[in-house]
Structures are given as structure tokens and as C-alpha cells.
Design a protein that fits this description.
single chain, 14% strand, 28% helix, Oxidized Rhodanese, domain 1, alpha/beta, 5 strands
Length: 115
């Protein structure tokens, strides 16, 4: 899924372990499998929990937003960009992350899967 020039995107292969990752999938998706160390704020709670992001995100750092396939994360990334924050959508989301062989853990820290 590609969202055109309006939404800044980054490929999974361009991400490093040091990059700040925001996962906007819902709780059941997160519990099944996510990127270890990512911040989880479901898109359905994003506005109410926005302060958690601003506290956790690195000052003057980029926020990499991820969901299952890139649709929800594109919406959040665009919102953040409109707020003057350096944010990008992770193209293809967790599906591409897992397909690339990147580690996915469940809520207990065991190997997980993309729901």
C-alpha cells in the first residue's frame, strides 16, 4: 500500500534498532506480536494518549509509525507531521517487518506473529 507524496514513508529495511517506533495497532494485534521496544498506543486511543507519545519520543528525533499494513500508521504519521513533528509511516507495516525476518515478540516476550 502506498500513500503518495503526502505521507512521508520509510522502508522496513531502512530502520535500525535505535529508531523510535510507535505501534498504533489495537491491543489484540499488539499482544499477538510486535516489535520489542516499540511504544504501543492504539489508533482508537491516540488522541487521548497523545501525551504519552510526547513524553516517550526522543527530543528532535524521528517517530516511525507502524501498523499491520500501513493504512492506520499513515493516518497517524500525517497527523504528527501536521503538528510539526518529524514522523514517517513504515511502508507495509508489520506484515513487511515480519516477512523481512525481523523479530516479532508476543505480550510475554516470546516469538509472536502478525495478526
Amino acid at each position: 500500500m502506498h500513500f503518495g507524496s503526502g505521507v512521508p514513508t520509510v522502508e522496513v529495511g531502512q530502520l535500525s534498532a535505535e529508531d523510535f517506533l510507535l505501534d498504533v495497532r489495537e491491543d489484540d494485534e499488539w499482544e499477538a506480536g510486535h516489535v520489542e521496544g516499540a511504544l504501543h498506543i492504539p489508533i482508537s486511543e491516540f488522541v487521548a494518549r497523545y501525551g504519552e507519545l510526547t513524553e516517550a519520543a526522543p527530543q528532535d528525533g524521528r517517530i516511525h509509525v507502524i501498523c499491520r499494513s500501513g493504512g492506520r500508521s499513515a493516518q497517524v504519521a500525517m497527523y504528527l507531521v501536521q503538528q510539526g513533528i518529524d514522523a514517517v509511516n513504515v511502508d507495509g507495516g508489520m506484515q513487511v517487518w515480519a516477512a523481512a525476518g525481523r523479530p516479532v515478540v508476543d505480550a510475554k516476550g516470546q516469538p509472536g506473529f502478525v495478526l
